[in-house]
């Protein structure tokens, strides 16, 4: 079933946009995954090129690039999952905790991949920190009734709001329903919905 996006953000198609020196971006975890992890996979092969190309162009234009420190948890999770799937191709099915605890050589490789990827993130982008205290949790919880995002995204949005950042580079269509954001994406479903709803921004 197709996702029926109600577009509340402004949407920019990264395949027809040129980053500018005055841009201040937060880069979402999925983009860091494709940018920094050599074994990254994707359901849409163009994602493996589109996002790294745009991010490299932004870096070349001297745009300000940020990462959320919260992305480490999500990035570590998806890298470990991908490494387990690679292992399963030759060794058969294994449950996540068995993979994590029972095969030391695999664990060493997973840690190495995560460390290398996060090292690139912190080299390429300045951190946006947030304290996940009771106030941030309450504010995040309040978003659930108006913004259709997952738990990671709730806290990413809190981080962006705290630091006054409104531009995000992401393939995640959930951000498209957050008012006040400018979403830079190659997600064709989001771009088409934005075009139909008059929310596609051409700079």
Q: What report would you give on this structure?
A:
- 51% of the residues lie in helices and 11% in strands.
- It has 203 residues and is α/β, with parallel strands linked by helices.
- It has a six-stranded parallel sheet, with helices on both faces.
- The chain is globular.
Oligomer: single chain
Number of helices: 8
What fraction of the residues are assigned to beta strands by DSSP? Answer: 5-15%
Helix content range: 40-55%
The tally of beta strands, per DSSP, is 6
Report the average pLDDT across residues: 95
H/E element sequence: EEHHEHHHEHHEEH
Q: How far from one another are the termini?
A: 32 Å
Strand order, sheet with most strands: 1-6-5-2-3-4
Structural class: alpha/beta
Query: How many whole angstroms does the radius of gyration measure?
Result: 18 Å
The profile of the biggest β sheet is:
6 strands, parallel
Low-confidence stretches: none
Categorize the overall geometry: globular
Describe this protein with a few key phrases.
203 residues, 8 helices, 51% helix, globular
Give me the secondary-structure topology.
Layout: E1 10-13, E2 24-27, H1 29-36, H2 47-60, E3 64-68, H3 71-91, H4 96-102, H5 104-124, E4 126-128, H6 134-143, H7 151-163, E5 167-169, E6 182-185, H8 188-196
Parallel strand pairs: 1-6, 2-3, 2-5, 3-4, 5-6
